[in-house]
């Protein structure tokens, strides 16, 4: 959404507050982050899931770029019950408020062609798994597989995986590809 959507954000927060059973996943974009936490406070407060990369996480919630525990806690203080921070080739980190998880990047079969859409592919697989009722650690395992596939192609959609293909990748994942707690 563009930089002129403030009225829409307010309407969305109002609707979410009126519909407490609706779960809301929020992956703020450049414009939302640039507007600052104060302008987006209602969306952060109402988010069941917040997904961003490490640099964005520091800009949104503050904290020391070198401390993932601090970054996750600073995002939780904004209101989301679950936070996920991607860290490029280093993988991703998540917290549900009581447990913290780490997942490595899924191994690329060849050097990435283009990174366009990797974050969106990660987020879409994560949300799809959660919508299916899978636990956070399982959803976190799905996400890098979809991101890996997208970076093997040009563009943000060509490499997106269907569920059966994604699960096939997980069946042949190396032993080192595992979600761990920390």
Describe this structure in words.
By secondary structure, this protein is α/β, with parallel strands linked by helices. The chain folds into two domains: 1-86, 3-Layer(aba) Sandwich (UDP-N-acetylmuramoyl-L-alanine:D-glutamate ligase), CATH 3.40.1190; 106-177, no CATH class. Helices cover 47% and strands 12% of the residues. It contains seven helices and six strands. It has helices at 6-18, 30-46, 54-61, 68-76, 118-131, 136-150, 163-171; strands at 25-26, 49-53, 82-86, 92-95, 100-103, 180-181. Helix 1 (6-18) packs parallel to helix 2, helix 3 packs across helix 4 (68-76) and helix 5 runs antiparallel to helix 6. The longest helix is centred in the first third of the chain and has 17 residues, at 30-46. The N and C termini lie far apart (35 Å). 34% of the residues are buried.
CATH architecture of the largest domain: 3-Layer(aba) Sandwich
Which regions have little confidence, pLDDT < 50, spanning 5+ residues? none
- CATH class of the largest domain reads Alpha Beta
Run of helices and strands: HEHEHHEEEHHHE
Count of individual helical segments: 7
Please bin the fraction of helical residues. Answer: 40-55%
Beta-strand residue percentage: 5-15%
